[in-house]
From TrEMBL:
Compartments reported by the entry: Membrane
Membrane topology: Multi-pass membrane protein
Segments passing through the bilayer: 6-27, 32-50, 56-75
Biased composition (Acidic residues): 183-193
Residue span(s) of domain NfeD-like C-terminal: 105-159
Tree of life domain: Bacteria
UniProt keyword annotations, A-Z: Membrane, Transmembrane, Transmembrane helix
Keyword Transmembrane helix in annotation: yes
Segments of this protein annotated with the region Disordered: 161-193
Organism: Bythopirellula polymerisocia
InterPro entries per record: Membrane_assoc_protease, NA-bd_OB-fold, NfeD-like_C, NfeD_membrane
Protein's UniProt name: Uncharacterized protein
Domain NfeD integral membrane residue range list: 8-72
Compositionally skewed regions (Polar residues) per UniProt: 165-175
Length: 193
């Protein structure tokens, strides 16, 4: 009975090494399967060189290309397996991952400066008090502003043009300058005795 030739052993050991690399990803073995995989791939190269030098070099190239490719493929598939799902939990959907910053919806909206802006201050836009930065020159308290841009955690505003100022909602204008009947307050008729 004759044994297998060295090239056949090289192919068998290379396939075994690749299979052990995949198992190392899916089965936590503390690195034992990875070490066995390394020995199998090295043994494959040794047997290939026993066959001839060209086969040995071909198996080195195969090991350098196939093993990382199979490892990457295993890591790509792993999160979708039951063990990967148990280990990582459910992967979030694309909508869950998107950052939600409601301030970005304020771009183009009108508001009122609530403090002197040199260049930073407080503005009231859509009923929200926001820390903002003036895009240009100083803005006095009570002047109408327009939200120009939101950069990170900064809201940039500019002074609204006179025709834009007329578009500022009444509820955002200065409360102290509005008549009592617009605020929904009744006059105090009752005298305290």
């Amino acid at each position: 009975m004759t044994g297998l030739d060295p090239l056949t052993w090289a192919v068998v050991l290379m396939l075994l090494g690749c299979a052990l690399v995949v198992l190392e990803v899916f089965i936590p073995s503390g690195g034992i399967l990875g070490i066995l995989s390394g020995f199998a791939v090295i043994g494959s190269i040794v047997f290939a060189f026993q066959s001839d030098t060209t086969s040995g070099l071909l198996f080195i190239i195969c090991a350098l290309l196939a093993v990382p490719a199979i490892l990457a493929l295993a890591f790509k598939v792993w999160p979708h397996t039951p063990m990967g799902k148990a280990f990582l939990g459910e992967l979030p959907s694309e909508e869950e991952v998107k950052s939600i910053d409601q301030r970005r919806e304020l771009v183009g909206r009108f508001g009122v400066a609530k403090s002197l802006m040199l260049p930073s201050g407080v503005v009231l836009v859509d009923g929200q008090r926001l820390d903002a930065i003036s895009q240009g020159d100083a803005i006095e308290a009570g002047e109408p502003v327009v939200v120009v841009e939101v950069r990170g955690n900064r809201v940039l505003v500019r002074r609204a043009d006179p025709d834009e100022a007329s578009q500022t909602p009444v509820d955002q204008q200065d409360v102290m300058s509005r008549p009592l009947d617009e605020l929904g307050l009744e006059e105090f008729d009752d005298r305290l005795e």
